[in-house]
């Protein structure tokens, strides 16, 4: 019962929806982290390029101003005076002058003759000692010429550039004020984050709207399915649906009451372990062939008859009628139809066929049906056997002296003996009047056929039934004596004629190779 509750459509729908939500959340989280990292890296790169370009421009102007002042000044060693003449942008870029040892000679930080160094300034903005050591080494090795950009400090939000003044142990260092750079970068990154969150929010809204539409549609489908199941309980027809994409076959619940079958769930006909036992073993191949080829030749069937097993293990005939539903591109989507119980119809039809194929007096097959069955057997290239022709001796005399009722009794008695002493698969038929045939299959030796004919002669000789009669028998081998029914019939008829001419009450066998001598007459 617990499994049934967990497997109902509503719970299945909820599980599907939870799975979809979970997948969407994972994807959105991944996208958020990915996009934020990507935009942060890209923003920092673009920001660094912009800062470097602006810083290098301002630094070059400052170097030109200082060198120009020193070259024109009478006191060319007055570094502080040269620094004071710089056009400073106090809100953004700072400049100071140091020597190759990193000692600051002129700058904002020079107060009361306290010595400051580049290392001191870098530590104040939380640059690591390892990076400071690298800066100090670069200052010692710096030569006049192109400015040097300390790119290793950019991850610490410090942007510095240095140029050594021509002919002096003076280095002009320019940079952006760290706190303001951090604020600028934060503004850009926050702007990117906001954009990402807005986009993801739009995606989330779309997911929610889609989910609501999906749930609404699923509820509508479930409601329609519930109506469908209820109506099927009051219907005398079972409906089926085969999903051509999922290869799944389902029936309406009333199949268990209408056909007496056990409860049947979704069936996967083409899976090895699929429970397809309710179909007769001889019909399983027919069903699979129908489902796999529907739509190739025709999209509709109206007379597909197979057998279903009921709870008692008996098979019932059912008829399938259905039509294929195609998609917009013409591909098969589903095969829908109904199943009707035709057990009574098939039973009546079988009875009519049997009545049409059986001689009403004796119970043997009639001539037409016997010829049809023998011809069907002859279609098998491995078929071998003997056709017996039997004729009651002096049957006219029996009718004339003892009456037709006694004559009919003789015919019935002969068929009774033939059915009892030939095999069940052998064909026993009445041709008409007092002539009968028996086709004994899977027999190649003439001696076997002769012994069987002799057995019938002995039984009739020992019989105490009324009337007492004898028969003349002819037997012809297939395919040695005749390769088709007509030629075989003529050979057997000729063999019986030989028995008649040889004195009646005997058997003559034509093996197709040598004509056997007529057997001795059985004394009556």
Labels describing this entry:
524 residues, alpha+beta, five-stranded antiparallel β-sheet, disordered N terminus
Gyration radius, rounded: 54 Å
Strand order of the largest sheet: 2-1-5-4-3
Query: If helices are DSSP runs of H or I spanning 4 or more residues, what is the number of helices?
Result: 14
Supply the helix-strand structural class.
Answer: alpha+beta
Q: What global shape is seen?
A: rod-shaped
**What's the mean pLDDT score?**
81
Tell me roughly what share of residues is in helical segments.
40-55%
Query: Main β-sheet: number of strands, strand sense, barrel status?
Result: 5 strands, antiparallel
Amount of beta strand: 15-25%
End-to-end CA span: 78 Å
What is the string of helix and strand elements? HHHEEHHEEEHEEHHEEEHHEHHEEHEHE
Uncertain residue segments? 1-7, 516-524
**Counted beta strands:** 15
Plain-language structure description:
The strands form three sheets. The chain has a five-stranded antiparallel beta sheet with strand order 2-1-5-4-3. The N terminus and C terminus are likely disordered. About 50% of the residues lie in helices and about 20% in strands. With about 525 residues, the protein is α+β, with helices and mostly antiparallel strands.
What would you say about this model in short?
This protein has helices spanning 2-6, 9-72, 79-84, 118-124, 129-141, 178-233, 255-258, 281-293, 343-357, 367-378, 395-402, 404-421, 446-462, 485-501, and strands spanning 93-98, 104-106, 148-149, 160-164, 171-176, 238-243, 248-251, 300-309, 315-326, 332-341, 385-392, 427-432, 435-441, 471-478, 507-510. It is α+β, with helices and mostly antiparallel strands.
């Amino acid at each position: 019962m617990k499994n049934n509750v967990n497997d109902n459509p509503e719970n299945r729908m909820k599980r599907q929806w939870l799975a979809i939500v979970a997948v969407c959340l994972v994807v959105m989280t991944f996208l958020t982290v990915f996009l934020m990292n990507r935009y942060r890296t890209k923003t920092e790169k673009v920001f660094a390029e912009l800062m470097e370009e602006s810083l290098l421009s301002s630094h070059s102007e400052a170097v030109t101003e200082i060198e120009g002042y020193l070259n024109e000044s009478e006191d060319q060693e007055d570094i502080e005076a040269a620094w004071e003449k710089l056009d400073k942008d106090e809100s953004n870029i700072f400049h100071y002058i140091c020597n190759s040892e990193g000692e600051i000679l002129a700058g904002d930080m020079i107060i009361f003759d306290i010595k400051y160094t580049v290392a001191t300034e870098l530590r104040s903005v939380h640059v690591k000692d390892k990076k400071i050591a690298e800066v100090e080494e670069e200052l010692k090795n710096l030569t006049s010429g192109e400015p040097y950009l300390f790119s290793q400090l950019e991850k610490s939000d410090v942007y510095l550039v240095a140029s050594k003044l021509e002919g002096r142990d003076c280095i002009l260092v320019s940079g952006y004020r760290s706190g303001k750079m951090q604020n600028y970068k934060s503004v850009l990154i926050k702007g990117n984050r906001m954009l990402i969150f807005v986009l993801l929010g739009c995606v989330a809204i779309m997911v929610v709207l889609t989910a609501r539409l999906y749930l609404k549609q699923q509820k509508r489908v479930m409601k329609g399915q519930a109506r469908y199941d209820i109506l099927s309980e009051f219907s005398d027809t079972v409906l089926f649906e085969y999903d051509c994409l999922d290869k799944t076959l389902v029936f309406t619940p009333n199949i268990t009451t209408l056909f007496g079958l056990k409860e049947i769930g979704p069936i996967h006909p083409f899976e090895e372990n699929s429970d397809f036992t309710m179909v007769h073993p001889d019909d399983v191949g027919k069903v699979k062939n129908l489902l796999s080829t529907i739509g190739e030749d025709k999209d509709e069937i109206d007379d597909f008859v197979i057998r279903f097993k009921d709870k008692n293990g008996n098979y019932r005939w059912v008829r399938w009628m259905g039509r294929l539903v195609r998609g917009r591109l013409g591909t098969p989507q589903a095969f829908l139809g109904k199943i009707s119980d035709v057990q009574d119809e098939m039973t009546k039809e079988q009875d009519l066929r049997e009545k049409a194929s059986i001689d009403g007096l004796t119970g043997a097959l009639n001539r037409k049906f016997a010829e049809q069955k023998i011809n069907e057997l002859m279609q098998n290239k491995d078929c071998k056997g003997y056709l017996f022709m039997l004729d009651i001796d002096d049957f006219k005399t029996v009718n004339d002296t003892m009456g037709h009722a006694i004559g009919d009794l003789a015919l019935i008695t002969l068929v009774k003996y033939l059915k009892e002493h030939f095999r069940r698969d052998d064909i026993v038929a009445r041709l008409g009047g007092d002539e009968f045939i028996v086709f004994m299959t899977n027999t190649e030796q003439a001696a076997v056929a002769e012994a069987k004919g002799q057995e019938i002669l002995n039984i009739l000789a020992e019989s105490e039934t009324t009337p007492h009669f004898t028969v003349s028998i002819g037997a012809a081998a297939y395919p040695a004596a005749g390769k088709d029914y007509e030629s075989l019939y003529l050979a057997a008829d000729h063999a019986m004629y030989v028995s008649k001419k040889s004195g009646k009450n005997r058997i003559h066998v034509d093996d197709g190779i040598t004509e056997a001598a007529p057997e001795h007459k059985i004394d009556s």
